[in-house]
Sequence to fold (662 residues):
Amino acid sequence: METTIVTSQYPALELKNVEKRFENVIALQGLSFSVEPGAFVAIVGPSGCGKSTLLRLIAGLEATSDGEIWLDNEDVTEASAGERGLAMVFQSYALYPHKTVRENMAFSLKIAKRPKAEIESRVAEAARALQLEAYLDRLPKQLSGGQRQRVAIGRAIVRKPKVFLFDEPLSNLDAALRAETRVELAELHQRLAATMIYVTHDQVEAMTLADQIIILNAGQIQQMGSPKELYNEPKNAFVAGFIGSPKMNFVSGTINEGVFQSTDLSIPGLGQTASGAITLGVRPEALMLADSDKGIGQIEVSIVEYLGDESVIHGRLADGTPIILREKGGVELNTGDRVFIDIENVDALHFFSPDSGERIVRSPKTPNKG
Amino acid sequence: MTDIAMNPPAVKRRKRGLTRKHSPVKTTAAIVLSVLLIFFFASPVVWIYWASFKPSASLIGSGTQDLVFTFENYKNVWKNDFGRFMFNSLFICGISVIISTSVAVCASYVLSRYRFAHKKWLFGFLVLTQIFPWIVMMTPLFIMFAKFDLINNHFALMFCYVTITLPFSIYLMVGYLEALPIDLDEAALMDGCSRFQTMRHIILPLLAPGIVATATYSFLLMWTEFLLAIALLTKTSLKTLPLGLALFFGEETVDWGAVMAASALTTLPALLLFLPVQSRLIAGLSAGSVKG
Fold:
């Protein structure tokens, strides 16, 4: 496949204070961000957060209520979908059922009145890259889910778009095919060096594919950053809870003179941190079982999930707060067992305001707990 | 293990009833019932065609000429300008169907795909127009057309036919369109199509069964329509088939042979037009019933 060379000095995509209202409902509010050429940006968030609406605004399938959308230093806010030079892969694939694979892939070029020879060579090129050559004369209904998915991607590739838009493209595939296609998408991104915007509700997909992730909730951007930034330095409790699987544990308590205290947990040695009510966030992978009555507290085991290389232990503190932790290998635990837990490193702890949910940064950093 | 692997499909089939065996009594009863039903529906039509080749006298009389076969009725009908009536009907219904179906496709596309204020009310109003019996509208329509000097004008009848068939045609087409995912339209828009190109290249080919079903409904309704035609067309040379058929019912005598031949000729164009598209029509009807 021919590689797209990125030469533009401008952002491939820029949103300036974009807002979308449906009658009295505000779907998206004050969205501003830019995407560098060649970047892979994932937009994630829970159902109904507005991520698909955002993609449709970028695509030109919905009109903005306010704000501007710029593509490659050109204001396209008022431009129609066809004029924007973008390609979109739909969740349902949206292949034209009465057209063959070849016709599906050639359609956009035909509409653009490209020469026949160019259409044929571009379709052949995309078909070769996606291993679809044997299926070019088949109708979509004669293809498997994975093949249809590849045709949908092929239809986007032949256009050589400024930006690729993906709307949950893997959600209709089974788990094995989803993992396989995820790798293929990552390879495709590397090969084309094209800008890609990818909407998904699956944070694992976002973490593995994207250079940058935008987390949306209730129509607002919660945080934009690299997967590492979002994992290590979540801006608020929502981001912290959304990124990571199993999700972060949250325990309400107070902090005073560097000691976190809740009904069941006590964590000393936290250095200078604001005092008062606080929410502690700790990822399951930062927790471990303690050998004896040492550790930060005790939980009652409710379920143990054995995953082969590790076990996920679900339990509850005495006040009912759920706690999840991951242990390497198998563990000999039964429902109702009471076990002590500890933390590997106090630096892995996060603190959030119980009112606003905003992250509270500890300073200075403390040495590792013994 | 092999047994377990092989068993589920068989169990599934049995559950779905695909391999269920019927008792001979049930099968016989089903066949007898089907034959009776077919006889019930088809016998009048078959009798019309059979009777159209019999002398008039033998149809009502003692039946002594049962074996006589004649084209006399058809000759008689043709001599009485039936060809002209057929042309009039084909002309009026053909153009009206094209206009009605085209407008229905466009209107239903807007109703199905666009968001605008009071859409539900508009759609409800369209359906509501169907509750008015035509007979109620006859007098005002006649007065209106008379004022505009449009009595004995085929275009006046076409206007009525399009107006009458349009609401239900739109209703039908909206059902078919709703069954087509909107993603297809959006994919076409992303591919650079205008709304018109989206309709032409993507929606219309997929909507073909629905269009055939809607056009069939409109055509059959117009083809057999009597009330409006008799009110608006008084000149014999302008009359349509149903009016022509009525001419064979004299005040004192009825030429039953001619009536049968005229009836046979009336059903013929409809059969010839719609038999070739019958399979598409059925596909369209079932698609509408499942998804619409």
Notes: Chain A has eight helices and 21 strands. Residues 100 and 137 of chain A are 5 Å apart (CA to CA).
